[in-house]
Structures are given as structure tokens and as C-alpha cells.
Amino acid sequence: MSSREFNNPPAWGGLDETFLEKLSEAKRIVFFTGAGISAESGIPTFRGKDGIWNKLRPEELANFNAFMRNPQMVWEWYNHRKKIVHDAKPNAGHLAIAEMQDLLEDVTVVTQNIDNLHRRAGSKNIYELHGNIERNYCINCNTFYNEELDFSGGVPKCKCGGLIRPDVVWFGEFLPEDQFMGGEEAVRNCDIFFVVGTSAVVYPAAGLVYTAKKSGAFIVEVNIEETEVSAICDTSFFGESGKILPAIVDHLKKRE
Ligand code: APR
After folding, report:
1. What is the residue range of 66's domain?
2. Which residues sit with their C-beta closer than 6 Å to ligand 1?
3. Alpha-carbon span 17 to 47, nearest angstrom
4. Structural domains of the chain, count
5. pLDDT tens digits for 218-233?
6. Which has the closest alpha carbon to 206: 132, 135, 130?
7. 214 with 189: CB under 8 angstroms?
8. Cα–Cα distance between 185 and 181 in angstroms, integer?
9. Judging by beta carbons within 10 Å of its beta carbon (0-12, 13-18, 19+), is residue 252 exposed, middle or buried?
10. Of 54, 166, 221, 242, whose CA is between 20 and 30 Å from 39?
């Protein structure tokens, strides 16, 4: 039985021959990542057993109306997350993707994460679909404030008087068009599409898995459990991304 016919899939047993053959032929690779790739850096995920949304309600924190109702509370939550992200380090999974950039012809990262860990790991070609917690902008005039914000007088305000907010995409908001279009273009043209550490339930980002499928990419899932998209993946490696992705780097290095 293939791993996807189990509810709790068997642990990853190594890189299978079909995958290795596809990898040897692949020119363009996309890593589509979610919160799971940062879990081993100590950043909590959103869903699953210890997910953030089990304790907090996204409607009260991660949306514009919540911010306008209570900017202080929303900033308290984001400052808490900024601290976690600031203290976190890229883990072996992030580093493996960055290393594959030097071992393979064309690697693109399309991430839902706002933690900047792919960039800190050394990845270059990154599309950030849901923004970046290290950037902030004025809701009135869109001026960016990416240095340390001053909270001594309460919620930080722009020179124009507008409230400053985190540069993250909240529920109900559009994704940054340049990031989504750029990421989608890379997905349409890739040979292998890795879907790493995401429950693939938040759209339009999750729709990229189907875009990859329609474009004929070989789809490889890396996750600790089955997801909504496991059934359409060509192969699923069930295990921690911090273990599986470095194994791919090791294989590529041996091949050299
Ligand atoms: N290795 C691989 N996968 C892992 C690991 C790990 N070490 N730890 C957890 N996972 C998997 C979980 O099984 C789950 O499928 O990572 C996934 C995390 O899913 P979510 O918490 O839903 O995160 P994500 O898919 O990124 O959420 C998408 O939702 O709340 C919004 O904007 C937020 O970008 C986020 C979006």
C-alpha cells in the first residue's frame, strides 16, 4: 500500500528511486513552504496539535478590523511573535534548501512564512506570499518603517499621523501581487514542486499545489503527517523537514 492509504503514514524510509530519477533530470525546482519548516527552529505552527490557532482566534488577531478595533492588542501579539522569530535560527531544513541553490540549476522558494528564515539561511530567490514580520508600513501613506519601532507613546504612528502596521497579509487581504505572480510563474515552469511543512488549507497560496499539478510538475510532499494535498502528490516523505531535506543535499553531493 502506498503511504497515502494510511491515516497515520509510515515514517519516511529514504529517497525512493522514482524521486531520485526525477531529481537527476530536474532543471527547475520550487520549494513551497509553510510554518512546518520553521517548527524545528522553535516557531510554533498554526494548526495541528500545538498550533497557535488552537489557543488564539485568528479573527481577533490576524485581520485588519481586529487591528483597527484594538491596535495595541494586535501589536502586543506581533511583538511577541517578532521576539520568537528574532531569537530563532534557520534550521537544517532551511539550510538544505539554501545549499541546493548551489547544487542545482534553478531553485525558487515560495513561502507562506513571514519569519525571514529562508533569507537568513542564505536562500536568494524567494517569494514571500504572506509578507515579512520584520517589515512595517503606514496604513495611510504606505511609508515603510523597517527599523526598531518606538512603542513608548503607545501604538507607533507615521509622520503623516497614520497607524503603522506589520507588513504581513491578514485574513481577507490580498497577497502582494508581485510576490504571488512571481511565485506562480516559477510554479508553472518547475520540474519538481516540493510542498514542505504546510497543511495546504489557506488559499490562494495552497492553490499553487494544483497549479503545479496542472503544469505537469512532479510533486513531493515533506510533512510529518498527511495533509489535504497528500492524495495529489506524486510522492510523500513523512518525516521532519530538518531531516529529509538534508538527506537530499547529501545525495546530491555524493552524485557530484
Ligand atoms: N517538518 C515537516 N512538516 C511539519 C513539521 C516538521 N518538523 N512540523 C509540523 N509540520 C507540518 C504540520 O503537519 C502541518 O501540516 O507543518 C504544517 C503546518 O501547517 P499550518 O500550521 O497550517 O501552517 P501553514 O500551512 O503554513 O499555514 C498557512 O495560515 O494562519 C495562516 O498566514 C498563516 O501562512 C500561514 C497560513
Report:
1. 44-87+136-168
2. 34-36, 39-40, 45-48, 51, 112, 130, 197-199, 202, 222-225, 227, 240-242
3. 32
4. 2
5. 999 999 999 999 999 9
6. 130
7. no
8. 6
9. middle
10. 166
Whether 255 is in a domain gets the answer yes
In-domain check, residue 186: yes
How far separated are the first and last CA of the chain, in Å rounded?
34
Residue with CA at minimum distance from ligand 1 atom 1: 240
**Model's pTM, two decimal places?**
0.95
Q: Let me know whether 205 and 244 are in one domain.
A: yes
How do residues 5-44 score in pLDDT, each as one tens digit?
Answer: 445 677 788 999 999 999 999 999 999 999 999 999 999 9
Contacts 24+ apart (CB under 8 A), 137-141: 137/164, 137/165, 137/167, 138/162, 138/163, 138/164, 138/165, 139/163, 139/164, 139/165
Where residue 164 sits, what CATH number does that domain have? 3.30.1600.10
Looking up cell 514580520 gives 133
